[in-house]
Design a protein that fits this description.
about 300 residues; mainly beta; 5-stranded antiparallel β-sheet; about 0% helix
Length: about 300
């Protein structure tokens, strides 16, 4: 096997020049796969408060960074030459609905799936938060609380339970969130940050819970989540392509919509770039970077 090109002077070999790997397929491609955030719950009566939506499931294989629920970075993918990989980017959930999954699938690859964020619980009964990538916050009433939604292992946290008059915020990729007091909105759980695109961006924060008084407590803004709002106010929406949970609402108004997800790949630019449809492709810091804000395909070789 030859690892370079010979330099000749007449018939004498004078040195070797390193051969570029530009025609080869990278053996290691780092990824970030974030699902859509859950929608916030709605409040349907006085003396009650609604839960915030959970952040979208968060899976990260970037060396030195953290994957969901503060777990270790996953193993990067090893693409096969000529295989087309399908990318699905999940949308954020509407009021009282889970977010949609994001995934990467293709031949000879175990599908990489991040689960949509759990919905925020309504105030009817009151309702428990939805299970998802990150758990949705629970609604509460003047007499009782409910159970926070469960997160998915290595993708996001579970939300805390609500208590009487205190909703709970949606959980994030890093934090469980909490609940307010005296009818105030619950605080959304913290998301996680990644520099896979070249700059640090927070994603998968939990939405703030809705309050029963004219009070607004933000979700984790760094995670792209919406604020939980008080009396007669719609819950704030999660930021697009962050997987942030939507905020809970006040007084018979819809909860905020969760933020849509995102899928990002990067690999050394010593290899040839992939053919990516539906992605924004850039070259920076010694990497080719592919950002999918919507569904598409990618192929190396």
């Amino acid at each position: 096997m030859r690892f370079g090109e010979r330099t000749r002077s007449g018939t004498i070999v004078t040195g070797w020049t390193k051969r570029s790997a530009a025609g080869a397929v990278p053996s290691s491609v780092e990824y970030l796969v974030v699902a859509g955030g859950g929608g916030g719950g709605f409040r349907n009566g006085s003396g009650k408060s609604s839960g915030g939506g959970g952040g979208g499931g968060y899976r990260n294989s970037v060396s030195g960074e953290t994957s969901g629920a503060n777990s270790s970075a996953e193993t990067p993918m090893s693409p096969k030459s000529g295989v087309t990989y399908t990318i699905t980017v999940g949308g954020g959930g509407s009021s009282n609905s889970n977010g949609s999954d994001s995934s990467v699938s293709g031949s000879q690859l175990t599908t990489i799936t991040s689960s949509g964020g759990g919905k925020g619980g309504t105030t009817a009964t009151p309702e428990a938060g939805g299970a998802g990538g990150c758990g949705g916050g629970a609604g509460s009433s003047a007499s009782t609380g409910a159970t926070g939604g469960a997160g998915t292992a290595n993708q996001g946290r579970s939300a805390v339970n609500s208590v009487t008059n205190w909703s709970s915020g949606g959980a994030g990729a890093s934090g469980t969130g909490g609940h307010g007091g005296g009818g105030f909105a619950g605080i959304g759980g913290a998301g996680l940050s990644s520099s896979i695109t070249g700059s640090s961006v927070g994603r998968s924060g939990g939405g703030g819970g809705g309050g029963s008084v004219a009070e607004s407590i933000n979700g984790q803004v760094g995670g792209g989540s919406g604020a939980g709002n008080g009396s007669n106010t719609t819950g704030g929406g999660g930021t697009a392509n962050t997987g942030g949970g939507g905020g809970g609402s006040g007084d018979s108004i819809a909860g905020g919509t969760g933020g849509s997800g995102i899928v990002v790949f990067r690999h050394s630019d010593s290899f040839a770039p992939a053919a990516a449809i539906g992605a924004t492709t850039s070259q920076a810091g010694g990497y080719y970077i592919y950002v999918f804000n919507g569904s598409g395909t990618i192929k190396w070789g």
